[in-house]
Design brief:
Elements: H1 2-33, E1 41-44, H2 54-70, H3 74-88, H4 118-121, H5 124-135, H6 146-154, H7 166-176, E2 184-187, H8 197-208, E3 213-216, E4 219-223, H9 226-238, H10 240-243, E5 245-250, E6 253-256, E7 263-265, E8 272-277
Antiparallel strand pairs: 1-2, 3-4, 4-8, 5-6, 5-8, 6-7
Length: 283
């Protein structure tokens, strides 16, 4: 009887352990897969603790793309991103403050000071170009401290405020202009709408200008190589939430929205950037 009781206790113990292990595994799997627990954010290599929300990252992508389109150095994009973070948190806001009640947009540009009409300064593409138009007139802006160059353009009441955003600005600008490959990564929930390759191409053209492209099923394939290819690819990651992008492939690397493991090795043809969009919301 003693042996039978001991055997039963061991069986109960083993079953209990199995249930505990199974419960832990289930809980871990749930946490890993639960969309509710995903904090949507974008990071850049070397950016420290400065994350951007998806809408901020998309605006940062546009600002950097305009610099690439104009043939400006990554330093110009760094200055622009630090400025936009200080002025608007890189959000296209439609109001100003007490010091500048008519300030609007990504750079809080004032129509009363010649930056354009209210509608124009609220157009992110116009706002970015207007900023760069002023920046390139600053003598030796590439060698100035970021906060100094920004102040020469903005003429803010707080001339040193831009310095606090320099690390974030340099990191995102370096990646989004293609100087740092595989630098931008975004953790996102599953898409809540189907993507459209034509809409992606329209946005690419709007931000970068004409880029040779073809549509293959759910993918937009862009012809580009080198730093331009990486600029386009990381722009796509920064815009993944708004455009329902699920995968980006370039230069032997792949970013996949569902995996959330950053850039991984992949078999990708040279000279191409492949941007794949969702068929529809995850079931």
């Amino acid at each position: 009887m003693a042996r039978r009781g001991s055997w039963r206790r061991r069986m109960v113990l083993l079953l209990t352990l199995a249930l505990v292990v199974g419960g832990v595994y289930t809980a871990v799997a749930f946490v890993q897969r639960s969309e509710v627990l995903v904090t949507e954010r974008c990071t850049a290599e070397g950016g420290g603790t400065d994350d951007l929300a998806p809408d901020q990252a998309a605006n940062a992508g546009l600002i950097s793309a305009v610099a690439v389109r104009r043939g400006l150095p990554a330093r110009a994009a760094s200055i622009a991103l630090a400025t936009a973070m200080q002025e608007s948190k890189i959000r296209n806001i439609g109001h100003g403050d007490q010091a500048g009640p008519d300030s609007r947009g990504l750079f809080q540009q004032r129509p009363s000071q010649g930056w354009g009409t209210s509608a124009q300064v609220m157009d992110p593409y116009h706002a970015a170009n207007a900023f760069y138009d002023a920046l390139v007139k600053v003598p030796n802006y590439q060698t100035l401290d970021i906060t100094v160059a920004a102040q020469r353009v903005q003429r803010s009441a707080y001339p040193n405020a831009y310095a606090q955003h320099e690390e974030m600005a340099r990191s995102f600008a370096s990646s989004l202009t293609g100087q740092t490959p595989a630098g931008v990564d975004c953790a996102l929930r599953e898409p809540d709408a189907a993507g459209d390759p034509a809409a992606v191409q329209e946005r690419v053209t709007s931000d970068f200008g004409a880029v040779p492209a073809a549509t293959e099923g759910r993918s937009l394939v862009l012809d580009a190589d080198g730093t331009r290819a990486w600029a386009l690819a990381q722009w796509a990651v920064a815009n993944a939430k708004a455009l329902s992008v699920t995968e980006v492939q370039v230069d032997g690397r792949s970013w996949t929205r569902q995996e959330r493991n950053g850039w991984q090795s992949a078999q990708v043809p040279a000279g191409q950037v492949r941007i794949t969009v969702a068929e529809g919301p995850a079931q």
